[in-house]
Amino acid sequence: MQDTFDTINEIIRTRRSYFPPEYIDKEIPREVVETIVANANFAPTHRLTQPWRFTIFRGNGLTKLADFLGEQYRQNTPPAMYSEAKFEVTRTKILRASCVLAINMQLHSDKVPEWEELASVACAVQNMWLTATALNVGAYWSTPGNLDALGDFLNLSPTQKCVGLFYMGYHDDREKPAVRKPIEDKLTWVEE
């Protein structure tokens, strides 16, 4: 049991955000992606609503997503603020990833409040992130400003919501230090 504890402790403490510029040109096999998303399915969920849903973009799907987000930037940026460089960065960020998942949430307003569904989805994403870390896959959760438009692009129903994008790609495996204040600064003990 100690080995299990040591392993999970190591994975939790070495999980970091790895961004598309850090990704190397190496495709994540579909089986690895399937393993990562399978572990999302074991997140805690109130009333077993299991609200997490994912749209997985790979291959030509990445180009479709990049084109959509680039065009959103072009259409929604005032001419005086528009930058062709920003347009290209928007597209390139997607295309540098081996895989991008749209993180979607199925709402069950008749059973649980929306914040509980979001908490479950966040736990599902953490499960994916920890699994990716264990498999040396870099990842990060991004929340673009145009989530409503992204929901339309994904053809989500009125009871579904997109809450972000989960980028994944292999990286050069250099360790990043943790940037955390001590846990003692975040605790209040009540013992009497």
From TrEMBL:
<keyword id="KW-0521">NADP</keyword>
<keyword id="KW-0520">NAD</keyword>
<dbReference type="InterPro" id="IPR052530">
    <property type="entry name" value="NAD(P)H_nitroreductase"/>
</dbReference>
<dbReference type="InterPro" id="IPR029479">
    <property type="entry name" value="Nitroreductase"/>
</dbReference>
<dbReference type="Pfam" id="PF00881">
    <property type="entry name" value="Nitroreductase"/>
</dbReference>
<keyword id="KW-0285">Flavoprotein</keyword>
<protein>
    <submittedName>
        <fullName>Nitroreductase</fullName>
    </submittedName>
</protein>
<dbReference type="InterPro" id="IPR000415">
    <property type="entry name" value="Nitroreductase-like"/>
</dbReference>
<comment type="similarity">
    <text>Belongs to the nitroreductase family.</text>
</comment>
<keyword id="KW-0560">Oxidoreductase</keyword>
<feature type="domain" description="Nitroreductase">
    <location>
        <begin position="12"/>
        <end position="170"/>
    </location>
</feature>
<dbReference type="InterPro" id="IPR026021">
    <property type="entry name" value="YdjA-like"/>
</dbReference>
<keyword id="KW-0288">FMN</keyword>
